[in-house]
Amino acid sequence: MGNVPIIQFHRVTKQYDNDPPVLNDVSFEIERGKFYTLLGPSGCGKTTILRLIAGFTEASEGEIFFNGKKINTVPANKRQVNTVFQDYALFPHLNVFENVAFGLRIKKMKQPVIEAKVKEALNFVNLKGYENREIREMSGGQRQRVAIARAIVNEPEVILLDEPLSALDLKLRTEMQYELRELQRRLGITFIFVTHDQEEALAMSDEIFVLNKGKIQQSGTPTDIYDEPINRFVADFIGESNIVKGNMIEDYLVEFVGRQFECVDQGLDKNEPVEIVIRPEDLEITSIEQGKLKVKVDSILFRGVHYELSCYDQDGNEWLVHSTKKAAVGTEIGLFFDPEAIHVMRLGETEEEFDKRLEAYADVDQDGK
């Protein structure tokens, strides 16, 4: 299919009755062979996008394309996609083999073909030898693999995954993140994964779409999203952030907490009011003399690989610090950070101005510039 995106949304809106739109004038493109994650809080529209791609619901406005062809009215069973649901939706009365074979039997394939395809799919998800096992005898992780085998056995062009890891315990969830990512790489097909877990999205994705209130706030690689959040919502939602108000004095020079600091941002107006983001891990504990900020330690927690310190400066701004060093509660410390650790965000934009800047950002991102 050349360079045609496998999925395109063009100004898609989804609204139920007279309620506010669940999805509001959304446009994006999905390239083939990548792992995409739709990330956002409950009710942001991410599962609605999945249902629109799968054909389980129809758009109120806009156009949806698959391999360049409009599919708005194409029924779900005619689309080259398969969905792995949160509860896996396995048939409890069928064994592993018959669960995986179900879609092939619907297509009336011959038994030797079914046996070969099911065997190959189970091998792919490391369930060789489990063909006759009952579903009730399988662990949560094994059931998820059965659901994935049932999806890939139909050889879809896209696999949709609707929070499939949410029911697993933390250790198994982490293991399945690696397994899913590796499976996608081996299959070489497009995965679209829905989650509200930021760490999960950052760990697994080639590209992330961050959604809020029915709109895509930002799209990009995990590194782009984490290091260069486009607004306060993204900065707050993706990982933990220190956000304070400031002024952009000029290119590469910003003022906050009453002092001026070198930074790497440019292209804003002189003396423009801005918001400053510094990630907790980019703050280094040092002496008061060597620090760029002086803060007082309010609380400290041990998080296993680092200490988490909550500190306050003289203006009452809270500073969250992640460090392998610790400091006693009540003591004053210095915080050092590099110019690269400062990220400057515009503020006070109207929604229209924000949307225009977001479109420009997306155009630059797609051009790879």
Topology:
Blueprint: E1 7-14, E2 23-30, E3 35-39, H1 46-54, E4 61-66, E5 69-70, E6 81-84, H2 96-106, H3 111-124, H4 140-152, E7 158-162, H5 170-187, E8 190-195, H6 198-204, E9 207-212, E10 215-220, H7 222-227, H8 232-237, E11 242-250, E12 253-256, E13 259-262, E14 272-278, E15 284-286, E16 293-302, E17 307-312, E18 318-323, E19 332-336, E20 343-346, H9 351-366
Parallel strand pairs: 3-8, 3-9, 6-7, 7-8
Antiparallel strand pairs: 1-2, 1-4, 4-5, 9-10, 11-12, 11-14, 12-13, 14-20, 15-19, 16-17, 16-19, 17-18
What do you see in this structure?
The protein is of the alpha+beta class and 369 residues long. It has three domains: 7-227, Rossmann fold (3-Layer(aba) Sandwich), CATH 3.40.50; 248-273 and 340-369, no CATH class; 284-336, OB fold (Dihydrolipoamide Acetyltransferase, E2P) (Beta Barrel), CATH 2.40.50.140. It is built from nine helices and 20 strands. It has helices at 46-54, 96-106, 111-124, 140-152, 170-187, 198-204, 222-227, 232-237, 351-366; strands at residues 7-14, 23-30, 35-39, 61-66, 69-70, 81-84, 158-162, 190-195, 207-212, 215-220, 242-250, 253-256, 259-262, 272-278, 284-286, 293-302, 307-312, 318-323, 332-336, 343-346. The strands form four sheets. The protein has a six-stranded mixed beta sheet with strand order 6-7-8-3-9-10, with helices on both faces. Strands 13-12-11-14-20 form a five-stranded antiparallel beta sheet. Strand 12 (253-256) and strand 13 form a beta hairpin. The longest helix has 18 residues, at 170-187. The protein is globular and about 75 Å long.
